[in-house]
Prior knowledge:
Blueprint: H1 4-11, E1 15-17, H2 19-41, H3 44-50, H4 71-88, H5 92-109, H6 116-130, E2 151-153, H7 155-173, H8 178-181, H9 184-191, H10 206-228, H11 233-251, H12 256-262, H13 270-277, H14 295-313, H15 325-328, E3 343-353, E4 358-361, H16 370-377, H17 380-396, E5 403-412, E6 418-419
Antiparallel strand pairs: 1-2, 3-4, 3-5, 5-6
Helix pairs in contact: 2-4, 4-5, 5-6, 7-10, 7-14, 10-11, 11-12
Amino acid sequence: xxxxxxxxxxxxxxxxxxxxxxxxxxxxxxxxxxxxxxxxxxxxxxxxxxxxxxxxxxxxxxxxxxxxxxxxxxxxxxxxxxxxxxxxxxxxxxxxxxxxxxxxxxxxxxxxxxxxxxxxxxxxxxxxxxxxxxxxxxxxxxxxxxxxxxxxxxxxxxxxxxxxxxxxxxxxxxxxxxxxxxxxxxxxxxxxxxxxxxxxxxxxxxxxxxxxxxxxxxxxxxxxxxxxxxxxxxxxxxxxxxxxxxxxxxxxxxxxxxxxxxxxxxxxxxxxxxxxxxxxxxxxxxxxxxxxxxxxxxxxxxxxxxxxxxxxxxxxxxxxxxxxxxxxxxxxxxxxxxxxxxxxxxxxxxxxxxxxxxxxxxxxxxxxxxxxxxxxxxxxxxxxxxxxxxxxxxxxxxxxxxxxxxxxxxxxxxxxxxxxxxxxxxxxxxxxxxxxxxxxxxxxxxx
Length: 447
């Protein structure tokens, strides 16, 4: 007699109609294309990767740097072509593998424009590489000796649902702090939207801001469950449509809203998707899998269990560091802390060369773009990286060793300016602590 847990796991290996997965592949590939081409057209590539003298790469990955000249335009152009190939299923796994590698390169070579959906995109690409999303309605399926499939194991669809449940649960829980609950963040964000289309004045209303504050938590906390339940699925999709289109228009956060809308197709019944989008696709009869968990299946279960445990624990790692992650940034990334705070900061870098008994203040505009300066001033890891860059710069000019001290003041959600870097610490002589709290990073009390 099998236990409920065993039956649940075995059910994940039942063959189901792959129509939702095929449709999502098409949407997903188009969005990869749109993200890549949009980065060129909007000037993002130029501002982020070409114009800067240097980029704030992931610490430890200094060898990953933007291509010289117009190389990054070709780089993103290649990614756009990969997106189209994924959409039409042309050498699907090769195209998606190439896109994933190139996108990881973009993610690792710059932190100035960190966005949670950049990280999520990597994870979704890895999932899409595993599942047979090109088995039907693709150019690959038309090739000679190609394996054409009408079904896929249930887990190929459910892994996306589990991942989204983790993402949205943390998105809701992370909003349970004063800066969000008091409406400070939303008030600041909407203040800059006074002239936004026809609703600029409406965005300034307290009642609307309270709806966004409370509605944001409720949406994140319930939307996956509403999509899972058949009776509320269409209502949940309509709510998602309003929520994500509003976010896209007001906050302008790239493809993330459309990616979340596209992934909704995985929650609908396969037969519904087949009838609406693939009318020529043969109907599939699902037969319950009554077999035991084989060694191969146990391996699949084990690997995904490890992966999801890591995804559940990773957003909690900020508790291992001293201080408040809103200020220190330690444990902030990869934790689904999305759209939570507005930071404004100022920073002054003071360099001392003991051999000549001279001290001077760095003109940051000689080294950083305006966007880099804004992003760096409130983030200790980027401040440390800039100090290391200055140390190398002055060494090349024959001024070595130097001491570099920083005075940084940060305001969180319009609050008082507070110090987050020990002004007496010589950042030029300090090594980065990736696994534990750095004592030179100060953590003010949130007010």
